[in-house]
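B., you asked whether I could sanity-check this one before it goes into the benchmark set. Here's the sequence:
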Amino acid sequence: MTMTPLREAYLLAAGSAATLVGEPAVAQAWERPSALPDFSIGGLASHLAAQITFVPKALAEPPMDGPPVPLLGHYERVTWIGADLDAEINVTIRKGAETTAAAGPAELLASLSEAIGALREGLPAQPADRLVHPPAGPWPLRLDDFLITRMMEIAVHCDDLAASLDRPTPDLPPEVLDPVLALLSSLAVRRHGQAAVLRALSRAERAPASITAF
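And here's what the prediction gave me:
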């Protein structure tokens, strides 16, 4: 089988994240606070890396049975949207990332390299209808939809990590950015309504204060 464009895009996003995590400035600031509350820079880098290292683990599990949950339906089920900073789900995410970060930047980079290598070999062999188990819940999700969720996380957390280092956010190619923006726009419409999003994008005089997706 050949790699589909979406899966190629995911690998581009994964490579961009690995490059950022591998910057010497990240290792030098590993234990400093990040731009996200209660995350160290190392913890944030580890959470970013998890958007890549989890995928081979998901593919190693037996395929789930359907029917699959739609992409936007996935975000209707996750418990972290709207949860307080100290909610159990967010505390668990931070603790897991900080535990991974304790092994240091070299170990994280090695795991990233291994995961990307495994995905380059394994993704082309996955059928179009492959269902996987996302970390957020027990429901089945199409592999390509799951990769879109990971691309969104990569894009957002690359920005978080770059901001933590006071450096420019790396640009992403259109094949990565387009599905990420489509997902975030759909989530923003669901949260704020069509008019709010349209006005924010086209009418500064009527734009709402925020159209954040989460």
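One thing to flag: The beta strands are 131-132, 141-142. Otherwise nothing jumped out at me.
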